[in-house]
Amino acid sequence: MHNKGQEEKRSYPRKPSHLFVRYSYGSNIFTGIALNLSKNGLFIKSVKGLPVQTRSDVLIPLVQEVLKVPINIQWLIKIDMNYSGMGVQVLNPPNEYLDFVEHFETADNNNHHHTD
Strand, coil or helix: what is 66? Predict the structure, then answer.
């Protein structure tokens, strides 16, 4: 049984992560850390928030490739006039992204480098 709240609104459970990612806005590239991910969304910690409803791509570096995932900015967190992160929806998730999330392990959370 789930508690009422944010998790109940989500179609898929979030997995904790610590993935270094990049995302773009116009010709600018920004970096952030995906603190959690699911098949249809991520939370990206970053000092540069994009406008809500902006469509972009997030780039997730894997061992042998960079996964390009289309996103839409859903909401922002701002503390004392500074951005600290944003919730994003994955748009039409590519199969490679779905496979990545499906096999993602919390203990294996530094861009697929094992820590054990």
Answer: strand
Task: Examine the pLDDT at 78 and tell me if it is beyond 60.
Answer: yes
Q: Which residues pair with 13 in a beta bridge?
A: none
- Distance separating alpha carbons of residues 45 and 36, to the nearest angstrom: 10
Determine the Cα angle at 79 with ends 86 and 30, to 5°.
Answer: 40
Report whether pLDDT(109) > 50.
Answer: no
- Give the global pTM: 0.81
For residues 82 and 72, give the distance between their C-alpha atoms in angstroms, rounded to a whole number.
21
With beta carbons less than 8 A apart as the criterion, state whether 80 and 62 touch. no
What span, in angstroms and rounded, lies between the C-alpha atoms of 49 and 98?
A: 25
The structure tokens 């540069």 sit at 48
- Tell me the three state secondary structure of residue 78: strand
Calculate the average pLDDT of the chain: 85
Domains and CATH numbers, the chain: 26-103 (2.40.10.220)
